[in-house]
Amino acid sequence: MSSDDTAHARVLYDTFAHPLSYTTTKIRVLFNEFEIGTGTGFIVNFAGHYAMVTNLHVLSGRHAITGQPLHRMGSLPNRISFHVTAFSKEKSSLGSFESLNFKEIIVDLYDDKNNHIWIDSENANPVDDFALIYIDTKKLHDDINGYDLKSISIGDALYIKSVDKGNLETNSSFALLTNLHPPVGSDVFVLGYPKGLELTGVFPIWKRASIATEPQCPVAYDDIGRRNLFYIDGNTKPGMSGAPVIYITKSGVRLVTDEGHPVDWTPGVPILLGVYAGRDGVTPDEHELSLGRVWKTASIRSLMLEAIGRQQAEAKG
């Protein structure tokens, strides 16, 4: 993994772009130095660790359903590039500022033994179309000391029911690493780069969609009920594969967990619902109906826990 500065900016805190726009990145899919496609990814954090999340088909170069190469000439990627937004907060007589560094990261997708470096669920029936690449922030912080990365937290513990204080062990009050769901029909935003567009530089396009299936219910695929995905209805485009799907909480609307527990949330707060599978992550029928798969946040968290475990094992030698 290598990195190079692509831009630097000093902006007044909370007066420039939406915070989530800094967490999303265009992915250039490469074979050696040649671009063979584009996609979308986003930066997540958990327990002080960072990763870039996208679709498995973006990294593998193969259709998630058929397994066939996506490139018209059959080329498969061996590298990708994307950016992260590093920041530090500062104060001056004019107020609070953020110093920002947009840094390009170039990643070789395979190691010297030809093993892929990303982490996926290794579920092939059907393929769980999400994956992540762990980001070693120590390497980044060597040249931008004191900076953190703009990212989406995926480590919330949620209070879901009252507690019998006399019996805490059997009446747990918290659901750790759970999925949260707004009602079916709710508007959501898919943040990505349709056809590779970057109309505002590094920032994504916010495309609106709606939740098309009851998100806490299983979705049937090849007679298999899948609890880790739901559908959205929206006119998305190629290049948005791997985009985060965001819901902005509203007053009076309760979220529910997979188990049906209601959760109250502060209005106006964005919540990550999952990663969008894109036009190359669905069947032809789903494509025709403008239905896109969304792989739920808890699935991403599972991969993140695996990535952290691998890093800790490598650190121990």
What does this structure look like?
The protein is mainly β. It has helices spanning 56-60, 137-141, 284-288, 297-316; strands at 2-12, 24-31, 34-46, 49-54, 79-92, 95-108, 119-120, 131-135, 148-149, 152-153, 157-159, 174-176, 187-192, 205-211, 219-221, 224-226, 229-233, 244-248, 255-256, 262-263, 270-276, 291-296. Strands 1, 2, 3, 4, 5, 6, 7, 8, 9 and 10 form a ten-stranded mixed beta sheet that branches. It has a six-stranded antiparallel barrel with strand order 13-14-17-22-21-18. A hairpin with a 5-residue loop joins strand 19 (255-256) and strand 20. The radius of gyration is 20 Å and the shape is globular. It starts with a strand and ends with a helix.
Set down the secondary structure blueprint:
Layout: E1 2-12, E2 24-31, E3 34-46, E4 49-54, H1 56-60, E5 79-92, E6 95-108, E7 119-120, E8 131-135, H2 137-141, E9 148-149, E10 152-153, E11 157-159, E12 174-176, E13 187-192, E14 205-211, E15 219-221, E16 224-226, E17 229-233, E18 244-248, E19 255-256, E20 262-263, E21 270-276, H3 284-288, E22 291-296, H4 297-316
Parallel strand pairs: 3-10
Antiparallel strand pairs: 1-6, 2-3, 2-5, 3-4, 4-8, 5-6, 5-9, 7-8, 11-12, 13-14, 13-18, 14-17, 15-16, 17-22, 18-21, 19-20, 21-22
